[in-house]
Here is the input.
Amino acid sequence: MKILIGEIAHETNTFANEKTTVESFKEWEWIHGDEILQNHRKVRDYLGGMMERAEETGVEIIPLFSAFAMPSGVITKETYNVLLQELTNSIKAVKEYDAICLALHGAGVAEDVDDLEGGILSAIREVVGYKIPVVVTLDLHGNITDQMVQEADVLLGVNFYPHVDCFERGIEAIDITRKILSGELQPKMSLKKLPLMIPTSTTNLPPAKNINELCWAHEVNEKIIDCTFFHGFPYTNIPEVGVSVVTVTNNDQELADQTAEEIALEIWNTKEMFFPDIINPDEGIKRALKIEGKPIVINETSDNPGGGTPGDGTHLLSAMIEANLENACFSFIYDPEVVNIAHNSGVGATIDVLLGGKTDDLHGKPLKVTAYVKTLADGRFIQSSQMGKGAKVNYGKSARLVVGDIDIVVCSKRSQTLDEQIFLLHGIDIRSYKIVALKSSQHFRAGFEPLAHTIITVDSPGLSSFNLFSFEHSRLAKEVYPFKKDVEFLQKDKVK
Here is the structure.
């Protein structure tokens, strides 16, 4: 049994100004063949799970092409075509194989292509036809489309946000593929789309937690192979954006339809719970200072590079400096210009710089600060978060600056803060700090919930704000909640 594996992953924030290019992917991952095995073996991600299960079960895996770019703006048409070429050419180069397992995302958008994943799968089918099983893992923030369902045999979404179960979905992809090839499984899929958009919602708390538990209760039925609540990615201005449910059964279309509809109805009945009141940075800091114990983690959800934002927003950091905080740290802000100044000046230097705020005005103005250069580093470490644990991370040259009594880590590559490793790289033990600030919406929880006394989420203007009304969704195919409060959910709108 030979299974081809590969990955093309991008979460596209269409409201971001900067386009995503081949260089954007190459900054993070653009690899072929055996290099995929080297980079992902024993890593808790989709490909790592596929590899481990294949090796356990004696399946021969043939790595194709893997490309990943940090969430950002629309993918250029040229880049889209190159991605398709790289993947399809790598398939054509293999003479014999039985199936394909792919790690995609579900919220990719390219110029003139609203559905990146549907386009990828369609291109693959042109090469392999429809007799070769194609099993796909997806992010739960996927905006799932009819084309994805039509072109794939099985779509598997992660259940958790933070995505700590990518590895398990990779394992499941191999198991399901083996069952399809053996004739044990004849998958039938049902997609139920809701007229609903929600902000990013962690799954270890209601209401998302409750929906997941309902999905799992249905999966006790041995005929139901998978049932996934896809939250959708609200920061995309495309017609098919929003919440959906995908159910996969063993040769029972009616059961798939019924189950997807039942889950969708429960989501709809609890939709108001997905819109919590979020406070601003000033309020978050005041609240943190009133709490006894440490560390108090304050996450800035509105400038989350994991959602396609610049990562150099200054709203929270500015509020921290203005509050004259003591025993506080911030990691990290993206500013390669300041990093270079710090490295050129050296440890022990005092530098006057404009920090952050260089991408746009939305995320805050540059901060004029006098900073002491405490430490310098190369930005490299091994990820410890259960989300992607074992991955080799490189944030580029970085620096720890001290402004007043606040330790600030500055990096030269954009990313959200997933675990404490970037702090530790600069000698910061967050357990000894009262306030620990970072940029992330939910993924940070995998690494920081075990360490934090309390977590406080703050929001402000930004491209990943919880305030969905701050985005102009001008291309919606139909009216959706919360923009239209009295929109109806027509249960009879089943989609195969």
Remarks:
- The mean pLDDT is 97.
- Residues 281 and 316 are 5 Å apart (CA to CA).
- The chain is about 30% helix and 25% strand.
- The first strand starts at residue 2 and ends at 9.
